[in-house]
Design goal:
Blueprint (H helix, E strand, L loop, with lengths): L4 E4 L18 H12 L6 E4 L6 H4 L7 H11 L13 H20 L5 E4 L21 H13 L4 E6 L5 H7 L5 E6 L19
Parallel strand pairs: 1-2, 1-3, 4-5
Helix pairs in contact: 4-5
């Protein structure tokens, strides 16, 4: 087992730039990266540069035509929802974001690292199988969970989502799947208005 924490980041993540006033903007990652580089932790990280998730891998968590829908909107710079604007580069960067989480999962699954931190954007936990929302294009963590099951033979997986907002997209993807346990720790009531304590799934 590699003793270090894997750190996944790519400078292209900064190119998903939808304006200086949008809450999910490049400065979020710049601030995190700057803080890490100034800390003693930086030299202990096993740094990995990610590649793009394939279209097939995006389909692990999304409907068959979903990725093409996202691609067309990005190509024309048409907002996906009122809160999820895109630029031409957003489709490729969102694939790279999903790929970053896949690399994090692979590093741990193969023993390259004991644990991993993926500093990626755009985020993913609001994206459902067929709907982008809440700044999210592809559901990175859901794709990674399916990747671990399908390409690395893992069985049961647990996802703990710790965020001020409920991870509704991840919950929707696995709501009927007993092989993935999803727990969301969030503030309520708050966007997107889901995540009550009686939402417990009904998968086998």
């Amino acid at each position: 087992m590699h003793p270090k924490t894997a750190f996944i980041y790519h400078p292209q993540y900064l190119n998903h730039d939808t304006g200086p006033h949008h809450p999910e903007r490049p400065n979020r990652l710049r601030a995190c990266l700057a803080a890490l580089q100034k800390s003693k932790v930086w030299e202990q990280l096993h740094r990995i540069e990610p590649t793009h998730a394939s279209i097939e891998q995006l389909g692990y968590a999304h409907a068959p035509n979903y990725s093409e829908h996202i691609r067309r909107h990005c190509e024309q710079e048409i907002p996906l929802t009122y809160d999820t604007p895109v630029v031409k580069a957003s489709f490729d960067i969102a694939r790279l974001s999903a790929g970053g989480v896949l690399h994090a999962a692979k590093a741990v699954a193969t023993g390259t690292a004991k644990n991993a931190f993926a500093l990626v954007r755009p985020p993913g936990h609001h994206a459902t199988p067929n709907q982008s929302m809440g700044f999210c294009l592809f559901n990175n963590i859901a794709i990674a969970a399916r990747y671990l099951q399908r390409e690395h033979g893992l069985g049961n997986i647990a996802i703990v989502d710790w965020d001020v907002h409920h991870g509704n997209g991840t919950q929707d993807i696995f709501y009927e799947d007993g092989s993935v346990f999803f727990s969301s720790i969030h503030e309520s009531p708050l966007y997107p208005g889901t995540g009550s304590q009686n939402e417990r799934g009904y998968g086998p």
